[in-house]
Amino acid sequence: MMTHFSDFKNNIYNAISFFGFLIICLILSLNLLTFYWADDYSVFNEINNYGIFNRCLRGYFVWDGRYMTPAGFLQGLFLSSLPAELITLFWTICFLTSGLIIYFILNKNEGISAKNSKTYFLPILIVIAFWLGSYRHIGQTIYWATGGVYSFNLVLGSFWILLFNRLEKVNSSVQRISFIAFTIVVSLTTQNLTIALITIVFLKILSDFLFREKQNLRINIFILLIIIAGTVFLSTAPGNFLRAKELNDSALSNVSILNLVKNYFFILYSYLKFSALIIILAIFSTIVWVNNYSILNFKNFASAISLPKSKVDWANFINNYKYLIAALSTILPFVALPEIVSTRTAIYFMFFLFLFIVEFLKNIPISRPATTKSFIPLFTLIVYFSATCFITYNLKKGSVLKTKMTEREQLLQKSKGKAITIRPIDESLKSYCFDLRDYNNNDDWALEAQEEYFGIQNITVK
Predict the structure, then answer these.
(1) How far apart are CA 236 and CA 383, in angstroms?
(2) pTM confidence score
(3) How many CA within 13 A on the CB side of residue 6?
(4) Reduced to 3 states, what is the DSSP secondary structure of residue 342?
(5) By the 8 A CB rule, do 214 and 221 touch?
(6) CB-CB contact of 93 with 153 (8 Å)
(7) Can you tell me the distance from the alpha carbon of 459 to that of 462, in angstroms, rounded to the nearest whole number?
(8) What is the C-alpha to C-alpha distance for residues 291 and 268, in angstroms, rounded to an integer?
(9) Looking at residues 106-110, what average pLDDT do you find?
(10) What pLDDT is attached to residue 256?
(11) 334-346 burial, b if ≥16 CB within 10 A, otherwise e?
């Protein structure tokens, strides 16, 4: 009787896991509806005028330090050789992989047998919950050819964290040198990610100092210096200062502690608004996680929320809250120029917030009645059903928008050397997965970029 019940329960988990796998396939299918827009055409023009390398070099000096990064080169390479659908497919895989890495970061010693029906159940849930919870920015960080570099940087950063957490167990010199080389690459991603990595390494050094563990102190300090050097390289780019002056001429000259603090809390408030759903889904994921495993490394709840009193308490406090502190640190690069904050810049804040919530809550000792395990499939199905509805909505909206954008592009391709009149795309056609910045007026920079790319004499918006 118990064997039949166990088989039935395993079949339920297998069916739900299969449902989750189908949802991931649907998430990937959304890339069929992507298209080029806004900055994409500016990138095309830069590549045509300067080439991939010289575009990045020029961009470093005239607009943004992030031009001279692996993501900047990859962005140019992709847009010069691949259609939007394939580019965004790669970005989507990067983002979903980041969600999977969250699982491995959190999994630690709670391994499960490969023959267990729950082997794929929880990783798939984490991936889908992370994707769905990020709905506010995925239209600009996944399903956009230019903006997908945010997801590429995220997968680099998340994989780096996974390796860094396991570094103290690595004794091979080759592996350590390889990690240092990878650290150099990751240090050249983007400032609101690297500052979080700096925070994590610094907290690790501080924690080891409090625990009097000096075995990895030298290599951690070296890693810290590498990431700081990369961040300085990105931040001191001449283009950053030119861009800041163009966006807000008085921003850097009127800096005060009061304004910086006000800006910080304004950005934090904005990011928390963007993160409302991912917080809920992180809690749902934790409930499923806690009830999925019988062996958990529970910590004392009182010590987790109380003020530290000893060095050991401080070390535990740092370990408990390091991802929350990392999330809060991602805001710092914007406090002097909040004008550049957008939903897409919240991607790293939301990543670390999700990581913190799941890790913190799953390590709280709670009462787990046997009856709560029966709700695991229900909680999971709620997330999956919500994701399915969200995907269906975006597929429906995206197909209409894709048709309109294809018609426009065909018109532009046929209008070389001509003066034409076009109508703006209806704003109501946009959706969370398929964002669009259309022309604001006849002097719009996006309009000029398309005139140059398609060789059109003049485009008038009517």
Answers:
(1) 43
(2) 0.92
(3) 5
(4) coil
(5) no
(6) no
(7) 10
(8) 32
(9) 70
(10) 84
(11) bbbbbeebebbbb
* Predicted confidence (pLDDT) per residue in 385-412, tens digit: 999 999 999 999 999 999 999 999 999 9
pLDDT reading at 109 higher than 80: no
Mean pLDDT of 420-440: 89
Which residues lie below 8 Å from residue 302, measured CB to CB, with a gap of 6+? none
**If pLDDT is split at 50, 70 and 90, which confidence band does 61 have?**
very high
Per-residue pLDDT, 297: 44
Angle CA 390–324–300, to nearest 5: 110
The interaxial angle of helices 84-107 and 2-29, nearest 10 deg, is 140
- Return the structure tokens found at 5: 């019940």
Q: How far apart are CA 133 and CA 359, in angstroms?
A: 17
| Helix H or strand E segment including 459 | strand 458-461
Which two tokens mark 39?
A: 């900055």
CA distance 62 to 241: 9
Tell me if 400 sits within 8 A of 436, measured CB to CB.
no
Euclidean distance between CA atoms 430 and 281, whole angstroms: 24
Kindly state the helix (H) or strand (E) to which residue 419 belongs, with its residue range: strand 419-422
DSSP string, 123-135: HHHHHHHHHHHTT
Map tokens 């010289």 to a residue.
54
